[in-house]
Automatic annotation (TrEMBL):
<keyword id="KW-0812">Transmembrane</keyword>
<protein>
    <recommendedName>
        <fullName>Cell division protein CrgA</fullName>
    </recommendedName>
</protein>
<comment type="similarity">
    <text>Belongs to the CrgA family.</text>
</comment>
<dbReference type="InterPro" id="IPR009619">
    <property type="entry name" value="CrgA"/>
</dbReference>
<dbReference type="GO" id="GO:0005886">
    <property type="term" value="C:plasma membrane"/>
</dbReference>
<keyword id="KW-0132">Cell division</keyword>
<feature type="compositionally biased region" description="Basic residues">
    <location>
        <begin position="1"/>
        <end position="18"/>
    </location>
</feature>
<dbReference type="Pfam" id="PF06781">
    <property type="entry name" value="CrgA"/>
</dbReference>
<dbReference type="GO" id="GO:0051301">
    <property type="term" value="P:cell division"/>
</dbReference>
<feature type="region of interest" description="Disordered">
    <location>
        <begin position="1"/>
        <end position="25"/>
    </location>
</feature>
<feature type="transmembrane region" description="Helical">
    <location>
        <begin position="75"/>
        <end position="94"/>
    </location>
</feature>
<comment type="function">
    <text>Involved in cell division.</text>
</comment>
<keyword id="KW-1003">Cell membrane</keyword>
<keyword id="KW-0131">Cell cycle</keyword>
<keyword id="KW-0472">Membrane</keyword>
<keyword id="KW-1133">Transmembrane helix</keyword>
<feature type="transmembrane region" description="Helical">
    <location>
        <begin position="40"/>
        <end position="63"/>
    </location>
</feature>
Length: 95
């Protein structure tokens, strides 16, 4: 038995639904790319870690002679190690 012809209105409606689905899929894919873009991570975690290491090295070498480090005392350990820990935390965002 031959298939009946579809009405123009029904065909247009079906096409518009398909286009809407395609647009939604494209938007979802584009959004996931935006969220997954983590190119900034190495540019942040490397300097933060290096600043932490440099802070500790400067404290060990010249901590008593630098006025701001002498005032902080042993809190310099917390600052340096905190920066290094923050660097490792930031590194977990890298994909």
């Amino acid at each position: 038995m031959p298939e009946s012809k579809a009405r123009k209105k029904a065909v247009d409606k079906k096409r518009s639904k398909n286009r809407a689905k395609e647009r939604a899929a494209a938007n979802k894919k584009l959004q996931s790319v935006r969220i997954a873009d983590r190119a900034w991570v190495p540019y942040v975690f490397v300097p933060v870690g290096l600043i932490g290491v440099i802070w500790l090295v400067v404290f060990y070498i010249a901590g008593a002679t630098l006025p701001f480090m002498a005032v902080l005392g042993n809190w310099n350990f917390l600052i340096g190690l905190g920066l290094i820990a923050a660097s490792f935390f930031i590194a977990t965002f890298w994909k």
